[in-house]
Protein backbone atom coordinates (compact mmCIF):
# COMPACT_ATOMS: atom_id res chain seq x y z
CA UNK A 1 0.00 0.00 0.00
CA UNK A 2 1.25 3.45 -0.94
CA UNK A 3 0.40 6.42 1.29
CA UNK A 4 0.24 9.88 -0.29
CA UNK A 5 0.38 12.87 2.05
CA UNK A 6 -0.21 16.49 1.16
CA UNK A 7 -0.34 19.26 3.73
CA UNK A 8 -3.03 21.25 1.89
CA UNK A 9 -6.16 20.20 0.04
CA UNK A 10 -4.83 21.85 -3.13
CA UNK A 11 -1.92 19.40 -3.10
CA UNK A 12 -4.07 16.25 -3.14
CA UNK A 13 -7.45 17.20 -4.64
CA UNK A 14 -6.39 16.25 -8.19
CA UNK A 15 -5.16 12.87 -6.98
CA UNK A 16 -8.48 12.17 -5.25
CA UNK A 17 -10.34 13.12 -8.44
CA UNK A 18 -8.63 10.37 -10.43
CA UNK A 19 -8.98 7.70 -7.74
CA UNK A 20 -11.28 4.74 -8.29
CA UNK A 21 -13.13 2.53 -5.79
CA UNK A 22 -12.80 5.19 -3.12
CA UNK A 23 -13.44 4.52 0.56
CA UNK A 24 -13.43 7.41 3.04
CA UNK A 25 -12.17 7.03 6.61
CA UNK A 26 -12.17 9.95 9.08
CA UNK A 27 -9.53 9.59 11.79
CA UNK A 28 -8.12 12.28 14.10
CA UNK A 29 -9.80 15.02 12.10
CA UNK A 30 -8.21 13.84 8.84
CA UNK A 31 -9.91 12.28 5.81
CA UNK A 32 -8.06 9.20 4.58
CA UNK A 33 -9.26 8.23 1.10
CA UNK A 34 -8.39 4.64 0.22
CA UNK A 35 -8.69 3.48 -3.37
CA UNK A 36 -6.83 2.92 -6.61
CA UNK A 37 -4.79 5.19 -8.87
CA UNK A 38 -3.65 3.68 -12.15
CA UNK A 39 -4.33 0.22 -10.73
CA UNK A 40 -2.25 0.74 -7.57
CA UNK A 41 -3.66 0.55 -4.05
CA UNK A 42 -3.19 3.96 -2.39
CA UNK A 43 -4.41 5.99 0.55
CA UNK A 44 -4.44 9.75 0.01
CA UNK A 45 -4.73 12.19 2.90
CA UNK A 46 -4.42 15.88 3.74
CA UNK A 47 -2.34 16.02 6.90
CA UNK A 48 -2.74 19.70 7.67
CA UNK A 49 0.15 22.09 8.04
CA UNK A 50 3.06 21.61 10.43
CA UNK A 51 5.22 18.87 11.88
CA UNK A 52 2.79 17.52 14.49
CA UNK A 53 -0.03 17.09 11.98
CA UNK A 54 2.36 15.44 9.53
CA UNK A 55 3.77 13.01 12.10
CA UNK A 56 0.34 11.99 13.39
CA UNK A 57 -0.89 11.46 9.85
CA UNK A 58 2.06 9.26 8.92
CA UNK A 59 1.68 7.03 11.98
CA UNK A 60 -2.02 6.53 11.22
CA UNK A 61 -1.12 5.49 7.67
CA UNK A 62 1.23 2.88 9.10
CA UNK A 63 -1.02 1.60 11.88
CA UNK A 64 -4.45 1.70 10.24
CA UNK A 65 -3.70 1.31 6.53
CA UNK A 66 -0.53 -0.78 6.53
CA UNK A 67 1.39 1.42 4.13
CA UNK A 68 4.87 0.31 3.07
CA UNK A 69 5.72 3.43 1.09
CA UNK A 70 4.94 7.07 1.85
CA UNK A 71 5.20 9.82 -0.73
CA UNK A 72 4.86 13.34 0.63
CA UNK A 73 4.01 15.78 -2.11
CA UNK A 74 3.83 19.55 -1.81
CA UNK A 75 5.46 22.92 -2.23
CA UNK A 76 8.49 24.57 -0.66
CA UNK A 77 10.76 27.60 -0.68
CA UNK A 78 14.07 27.38 -2.51
CA UNK A 79 17.28 27.77 -0.52
CA UNK A 80 19.68 27.76 -3.47
CA UNK A 81 19.98 30.38 -6.19
CA UNK A 82 20.02 27.78 -8.96
CA UNK A 83 16.72 26.21 -7.82
CA UNK A 84 13.97 28.29 -9.37
CA UNK A 85 10.24 28.59 -8.97
CA UNK A 86 8.54 25.55 -10.53
CA UNK A 87 11.58 23.29 -10.18
CA UNK A 88 11.38 19.99 -8.29
CA UNK A 89 13.48 18.92 -5.29
CA UNK A 90 13.66 15.21 -4.45
CA UNK A 91 14.83 14.47 -0.93
CA UNK A 92 18.11 12.73 -0.20
CA UNK A 93 17.44 13.24 3.49
CA UNK A 94 15.62 15.63 5.83
CA UNK A 95 16.46 17.76 8.87
CA UNK A 96 14.23 19.46 11.43
CA UNK A 97 15.79 22.92 11.27
CA UNK A 98 13.96 24.39 14.28
CA UNK A 99 15.09 21.59 16.63
CA UNK A 100 17.64 23.23 18.92
CA UNK A 101 19.05 21.53 22.03
CA UNK A 102 22.51 23.06 21.77
CA UNK A 103 22.38 23.86 25.48
CA UNK A 104 22.79 20.14 26.17
CA UNK A 105 25.63 19.69 23.72
CA UNK A 106 23.64 18.56 20.71
CA UNK A 107 24.26 19.85 17.22
CA UNK A 108 21.57 22.23 16.05
CA UNK A 109 18.92 20.21 14.22
CA UNK A 110 19.72 16.99 16.09
CA UNK A 111 16.76 15.26 17.76
CA UNK A 112 18.12 14.26 21.19
CA UNK A 113 18.91 10.57 21.64
CA UNK A 114 18.17 9.69 18.02
CA UNK A 115 20.88 7.70 16.27
CA UNK A 116 20.79 9.86 13.13
CA UNK A 117 21.06 13.59 12.52
CA UNK A 118 19.28 13.67 9.16
CA UNK A 119 16.38 11.31 8.48
CA UNK A 120 17.09 9.38 5.28
CA UNK A 121 14.72 8.91 2.37
CA UNK A 122 14.61 6.11 -0.17
CA UNK A 123 17.25 6.05 -2.90
CA UNK A 124 15.28 3.84 -5.27
CA UNK A 125 12.13 5.95 -5.06
CA UNK A 126 14.21 9.06 -5.67
CA UNK A 127 15.90 7.48 -8.70
CA UNK A 128 12.52 6.56 -10.22
CA UNK A 129 11.17 10.05 -9.54
CA UNK A 130 14.21 11.71 -11.09
CA UNK A 131 13.84 9.66 -14.27
CA UNK A 132 10.16 10.61 -14.47
CA UNK A 133 10.97 14.31 -14.06
CA UNK A 134 13.58 14.20 -16.80
CA UNK A 135 11.12 12.54 -19.21
CA UNK A 136 7.79 14.14 -18.26
CA UNK A 137 8.67 17.60 -16.87
CA UNK A 138 11.19 18.76 -19.41
CA UNK A 139 10.46 22.47 -18.98
CA UNK A 140 11.77 22.50 -15.39
CA UNK A 141 14.87 21.31 -13.54
CA UNK A 142 15.03 18.53 -10.96
CA UNK A 143 17.39 18.56 -7.98
CA UNK A 144 18.33 15.95 -5.38
CA UNK A 145 19.18 17.25 -1.94
CA UNK A 146 18.34 17.86 1.68
CA UNK A 147 14.86 19.06 2.61
CA UNK A 148 14.55 21.20 5.74
CA UNK A 149 11.39 21.34 7.84
CA UNK A 150 10.25 23.60 10.64
CA UNK A 151 7.13 25.25 11.97
CA UNK A 152 8.16 28.50 10.30
CA UNK A 153 7.24 29.98 6.92
CA UNK A 154 10.64 31.27 5.82
CA UNK A 155 10.17 34.64 4.15
CA UNK A 156 13.27 36.70 4.89
CA UNK A 157 16.80 36.62 3.54
CA UNK A 158 18.50 36.44 6.93
CA UNK A 159 16.71 33.21 7.90
CA UNK A 160 17.27 31.78 4.44
CA UNK A 161 21.01 32.43 4.59
CA UNK A 162 21.21 30.96 8.09
CA UNK A 163 19.51 27.73 6.96
CA UNK A 164 21.74 27.46 3.89
CA UNK A 165 24.90 27.93 5.93
CA UNK A 166 23.91 25.69 8.84
CA UNK A 167 22.28 22.75 7.10
CA UNK A 168 23.11 22.97 3.37
CA UNK A 169 19.43 22.55 2.61
CA UNK A 170 17.96 22.68 -0.89
CA UNK A 171 14.48 23.82 0.16
CA UNK A 172 12.46 24.56 3.28
CA UNK A 173 8.91 23.67 4.24
CA UNK A 174 6.90 22.53 7.26
CA UNK A 175 6.21 18.76 7.16
CA UNK A 176 8.70 16.56 5.31
CA UNK A 177 11.24 15.86 8.06
CA UNK A 178 8.49 14.88 10.50
CA UNK A 179 7.11 12.41 7.96
CA UNK A 180 10.60 11.06 7.30
CA UNK A 181 11.26 10.70 11.04
CA UNK A 182 8.12 8.60 11.54
CA UNK A 183 9.00 6.54 8.45
CA UNK A 184 12.48 5.96 9.91
CA UNK A 185 11.05 4.83 13.24
CA UNK A 186 8.71 2.40 11.46
CA UNK A 187 11.33 1.22 8.93
CA UNK A 188 9.24 2.05 5.86
CA UNK A 189 10.26 3.74 2.63
CA UNK A 190 9.61 7.44 2.11
CA UNK A 191 10.23 10.15 -0.47
CA UNK A 192 9.65 13.87 -0.03
CA UNK A 193 8.76 15.61 -3.31
CA UNK A 194 8.78 19.40 -3.33
CA UNK A 195 7.89 21.80 -6.12
CA UNK A 196 9.32 25.27 -5.57
CA UNK A 197 6.66 27.95 -5.11
CA UNK A 198 8.84 30.79 -3.81
CA UNK A 199 12.44 31.73 -3.12
CA UNK A 200 12.12 31.72 0.71
CA UNK A 201 13.21 35.35 0.98
CA UNK A 202 11.72 38.84 1.04
CA UNK A 203 9.83 38.08 -2.17
CA UNK A 204 8.03 35.05 -0.71
CA UNK A 205 4.68 36.69 0.00
CA UNK A 206 4.66 38.24 -3.48
CA UNK A 207 5.59 35.03 -5.32
CA UNK A 208 3.62 32.48 -3.32
CA UNK A 209 0.06 32.91 -4.60
CA UNK A 210 1.15 33.44 -8.19
CA UNK A 211 3.31 30.35 -8.51
CA UNK A 212 1.63 27.92 -6.09
CA UNK A 213 -0.78 26.56 -8.71
CA UNK A 214 1.93 25.67 -11.24
CA UNK A 215 4.12 24.12 -8.56
CA UNK A 216 1.25 21.90 -7.39
CA UNK A 217 0.52 20.87 -10.99
CA UNK A 218 4.09 19.64 -11.37
CA UNK A 219 3.90 17.71 -8.08
CA UNK A 220 0.64 16.02 -9.03
CA UNK A 221 1.95 15.00 -12.44
CA UNK A 222 5.09 13.52 -10.92
CA UNK A 223 3.23 11.76 -8.10
CA UNK A 224 0.71 10.18 -10.46
CA UNK A 225 3.45 8.85 -12.72
CA UNK A 226 5.42 7.63 -9.71
CA UNK A 227 2.41 5.64 -8.50
CA UNK A 228 2.08 4.11 -11.96
CA UNK A 229 5.76 3.16 -12.07
CA UNK A 230 6.28 1.66 -8.62
CA UNK A 231 5.60 -2.06 -8.46
CA UNK A 232 4.61 -1.71 -4.83
CA UNK A 233 4.08 -5.39 -3.83
CA UNK A 234 7.38 -6.51 -5.38
CA UNK A 235 9.25 -3.42 -4.19
CA UNK A 236 8.23 -3.90 -0.57
CA UNK A 237 9.29 -7.52 -0.33
Automatic annotation (TrEMBL):
Q: Which top EC class applies here?
A: hydrolase
At the top level, the lineage of the source is: Bacteria
Q: Which pathway does the record list?
A: Amino-acid biosynthesis; L-methionine biosynthesis via salvage pathway; S-methyl-5-thio-alpha-D-ribose 1-phosphate from S-methyl-5'-thioadenosine (hydrolase route): step 1/2
Q: What is its EC number?
A: 3.2.2.9
Cross-referenced SUPFAM superfamilies, in alphabetical order? Purine and uridine phosphorylases (SSF53167)
GO cellular component terms, alphabetically, are: cytosol
| InterPro entries, alphabetized | MTA_SAH_Nsdase, Nucleoside_phosphorylase_d, Nucleoside_phosphorylase_sf
One short Pfam name that applies is PNP_UDP_1
Q: Which GO MF term does the entry hold, naming one?
A: methylthioadenosine nucleosidase activity
GO biological process: one example? nucleoside catabolic process
Q: Which UniProt keywords apply?
A: Amino-acid biosynthesis, Glycosidase, Hydrolase, Methionine biosynthesis
Q: Which NCBIfam families match?
A: MTA_SAH-Nsdase, PRK05584.1
Q: What is this protein called?
A: adenosylhomocysteine nucleosidase
**What is the taxonomic lineage of the source species?**
Bacteria, Bacillati, Bacillota, Clostridia, Lachnospirales
Amino acid sequence: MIGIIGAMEEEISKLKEIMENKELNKIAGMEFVKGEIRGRQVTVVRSGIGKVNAAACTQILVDRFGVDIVINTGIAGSLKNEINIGDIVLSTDTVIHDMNVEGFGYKRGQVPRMDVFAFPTDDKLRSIAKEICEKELIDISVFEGRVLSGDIFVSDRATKEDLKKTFDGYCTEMEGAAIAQVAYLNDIRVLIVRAISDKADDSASMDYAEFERKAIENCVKLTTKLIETIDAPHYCQ
